[in-house]
Amino acid sequence: MAYTRKNVSKLTRTERRRFVDALLEVKRRGEYDEFVRTHIAYNTPDGESGLRTAHMAPSFLPWHRKLLLELERALRRVDESVTVPYWDWTRDRSATSLPWTADLLGGNGRNGDRQVMTGPFAHRAGHWTIKESVTDVKFLTRDLGRARDPIALPTHDDLEKALADPVYDTAPWDSTVTKGFRNNLEGWGTGRGSPSWRNHNRVHRWVGGVMLGGASVNDPVFWLHHSFVDLQWTRWRQRHSDHRYLPDRPPAAGNAQHGRIVARHEKMPPWNMTPDELEDMSEIYQYG
Length: 288
What we know:
This protein has helices spanning 13-28, 32-41, 60-78, 156-164, 181-186, 199-207, 221-239; strands at residues 3-5, 285-287. The chain is mainly α and 288 residues long.
């Protein structure tokens, strides 16, 4: 029977506690840092050579869906009642709303070093030392809303623009495409600075701190954010049921994207699964 991922605003106090406790236990066992390492290893931008799977490519959605599933399985090995909730950033939009409460993810970082001082993932609580990163910082950092250069979370209209596009993705299958659901949701826009960050990317920028780089998994909000992003793929498929993941075939030899992206029926590293196999998860989980 499929289990349900709930809106974080609908969790009971007991559900919040069990989710937090399961995350802390996965961290204590050393499993959590494996997820951080995986995201760092596959965070290849399209300006570099080689295969891209996690970002700036069609497989952005199935790749993160699989990563989310693996984390969820680790949590459920600790407590089978736990699922990964989603944070609807079009509704819960302030630095003091959920999920930024002391009994869940804790709040904003302090002035100066942006260290998170509240909640169960604060370094001073003793359970959340950052061990895998691209910097030497050992504590969780956040800069919610970017006080010095304010940025707003995406709106319902921003998200709707992505959902309304019936085509999953288009050539050249990278961060430069201006049409297609995938990049409108992932959020690589034209220009520089704030206007170029949309939807998924803008949320990472709004949270700030460790959420800005390849080690963004170090902030537990990563999972709530990507659970909501994953929900959008589900909604898009429901709305455009006659459209599928693209490309359906690998780019031909001689094409600049040959060997650099994953087609629908190709295996997606580091897992032995294809995007096609990850399109319909209704037998495993649903959204409430």
